[in-house]
Amino acid sequence: MIIYGTRGKNVHVDSGEFTCPRCADEQSYKHIEVKNYFTLYFIPLIPMGKAGEYIECEGCGGTFAPEILTYDPEAEREEMATTFRRLSVLFLLDVNRCTSPTLKAVQEIIGDTMNFDVEREDIAKDVKQAQSASPDIKKFFKTQTSGYADDGKFLLIITLRRILETECPLEENERSRLLELGKIMGLRAKTVKEVLEADLDEAE
Predict the structure, then answer these.
(1) What is the pLDDT at residue 11?
(2) What is the pTM of this model?
(3) Candidates 1.25.40, 1.20.140, 3.40.30, 1.10.3680; correct CATH number of 73-203?
């Protein structure tokens, strides 16, 4: 009996250094291509094309799409800080808490959270733009956070809570609005409620 078939074989095609998002540091990587082979008696003989490829971090062993090699943590941090800044301003306007202390808190808290300099001039522009455009806050939160994992969405909720609490404790309408926005972003209401009731100072 002749036994034949196909199988994938991992082929190491390149190596180098990259910024691993899991390690949050520079690490060595291996570029692996998965190639299909025609097999005879389970022995790979004839290559039949590439089935896929991935990058493997030699530090943590994590695997990523090849696009990870162009990953720029600084650019990602800047983009996330900008999104958080705009959403914070929009939220403060929505709950009528767009005051000098809360806007200062936007600058300081997002800056500390993202380890990125947030300019007061950019915040002022956000306020002016939001006031003139009057965007749909629910739609804006949903679209702007659609690419975030749940951790990123919860971080946004915590950030908004911290900003509000620099001036005074959360009001019931603010708590309800944060629960509503959490649901719009796809978060479980129970978990959002726990985040809003948690002792943030103790969590640090």
Answers:
(1) 84
(2) 0.71
(3) 1.10.3680
